[in-house]
Every structure is written in structure tokens, then in C-alpha cells.
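Thanks for the sequence, V.! I ran FAD-binding domain-containing protein right away. Repeating your input here for the record:
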Amino acid sequence: MSASSTLKPVLISGGGLASLLLAQSLRLSKIPFKIYERDASFSFRAQGYRLRLSTEGLDAIESVLDASTWKKFWDTCGKTGGAGFTAFDAVTAEVTEHVVPENLQSRDGKVVGIARGDMRKIFAEGCEDHIEWSKHVTGYELSEDGVRAIFSDGTKSVQGSLLVGGEGIYSKVAKQVSGGKLKVYDTGARGIHGQAPSTAFKDLGEGVFRLRDATRPDGSVFIITNVRAGDMHNPDVQFGWTMGGQPGVIRAPNDDYTIVGKQAADIAKAIAKDWHPRFKPLFDQMDEKDAAFWKITCSTPSGVPQWENIPRVTVIGDAAHSMTPAGGIGANTAVRDSALLGRLLREAGGWKEGVTAEYERLMRVYASEAVNQSYTFATEAFGIKIDEEGTPTV
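Predicted structure:
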């Protein structure tokens, strides 16, 4: 009997990007694991947008994946060159800013990005048989020799060696393990994600673009997108854009931000109705079924708080450090968590006393810096401000 077959599994709550990359690390280290995902399948949350991957994010992903999976991942990524970053007045199409920022580039002088759905699909390869669907983790219970996840229907998981909360900003595991110290603030700002055939972007050319409308009486709104060469004239390929607005500008019907499809698309089109014709194809040709709302949330801007370490429970990704979309920092920090925790578990041969304490110590350093950077960017981009005493939490 192998050593790995006698180990209790690592339990992972949530099937998002950070959870799946951690699962890949455990799979390759031959450490048993189980993933509990509240949705019935990946198709329930198929919508997504293109993530910009930083040097740190790419390095973390490459350190986890085996050579063939990494090649597949890298080949799937888009590499955007062009003229760097250009900002436009959305109404007049005048250039308001043009720079070639090195911090956008991650490899070979290119901006590297990938759609969330594609990323999730690759990270899930080889892990599918370890996922239990429609399992909503609402807490956990500890024993002397393990931990069990508690589900919303009152049932419990098998006993695991470790529980990793990776279920995002609404994580119950995060609240329990931190004694309520991990908080996610609702900034009041909202956004919409949209997709359109790549041909709708050809008037922009290749590069990273922001379109900003400051003429609205209720606050400014903007779109950011990156357009890569090669697929620009292929209508079968879609590019994404992300719209964001200051608090009060973008509102979902009945404040229901789970709405997906035409209602979200119609609101985006209405907001952009007076924009310059150069930008209209992004909305006129959008795939309405993929439009989705999102809330702009952020963890405590001063950094990831300290809590008493519980050796058999920890958190990764948005459960540990939610960030605004400004700067595209959140996902890159989440995959760093996965790589770090996976490496520590591999080096220890599975869960050992002290592994989560060391992970949390190291994670707090880079994640606190990232949260602060993301929040600082967002105060300018979205006009938000978090008062830790008065701003509502999610």
C-alpha cells in the first residue's frame, strides 16, 4: 500500500480557479483530495472574462502544471502586443492617454491573457473524478485527527487531513476560521461583462484599451479590453470587455446581480448609446446571452488580517483576499496561493502541523500588498472609499 493511499484527503471547498490549481498540485504530488462545489456543473458559471496574467501569476501557474498541461495552457493564452495602453474619451474618441506600461507586460513584451472558462477547464483536467457537485460548504467541524466539511443540507464530508476554503467572497469557511476577521466590503460600484466577435474590435487595433465616459450626471463609467492580433478578423472568435461604473451608475433590476443575459446586455447598450461610432460594434454585435453583472468588492484595504492559526483549516483566493478588478491583480494573487500551499504540502508529504501557519505567514505578505494596490487603483477608477466601520460587508 502506498503512503498516499493511507493519507486522509485534503478537502477543498469551491471549484474556482485557485481551488482547481491547488488540486492540480495535489494530484501531481499524489496527495489525495476532494473538491466540493456548490454548483451542479461548471456550466452553471460558464460566463467570464479575459484575465490579464502577471509575471508572478504565470510563474505560479507554470510551477504547478506538468509540462504538457503548461504547454496547453500557454498555447491557449492570448498574447497582445500592439501600441501598449491607450485611453479614449468614449463619446468623442479622442485619445486621453497613451503609454507603454511595462507592468502590463508579463512575457516576451506581451500582455498575456486567458478567458476564465478556458483557464478553469484546463485546471480541471485530471481532477474531474475528485469533484462532488451540488455540495455547498457552510462550515466545518474539527476532531483530534481530522476535519469534516459541513454542507447546507446538514450532511458532512468524509474526514480530511485539511480543509481549504476556496469558495470566494461569500466563504463560510473564511468567516469561521478567522473568527469573523476576514471581511469583504461591498463598495457599491457595479459592472457588466460582455463578449462580442473579435471582428467588432478591429477598429481599435491591437493593444490594451480603456474607454471612459465622464459626461454622465450620475458618475463616470468605463470599459477596459485587450485586443490581440491574429484573431481580429475571425468572427468565430470572441473577445471580452469589462464595464465598470462609479456607485449608482450601473444597477441591476431589483438589485439582482445574479441576472445573466439580455437584461444585462440591454443596460450596457443603454449606457453606451451616446458613445462614438468607433466603439459601437462592441455593443451592437455583443453576444447577449453571455452578459453578466458583477459587484465590485474588496477586502480590508490595510491588508489580510491576523487570526489564530487553526492547523487543519485555511483559505485561498478571494476567500482570503477579495480585490477590485482594478489592475487585474486578484486572480494572479489567487494562483500564487495555490502554488505556495501546494508546494508546502508536497514538501511535507501531505498535511503536517505547521504547514498552514507557514502558508498564512507568507501569503499575508504578498496578498496584503496586492489588496492595497488594487484598492488604491480602484479609488481613482471607481470613485470608491471603504470605511471599515461603516461600509457594508457581503
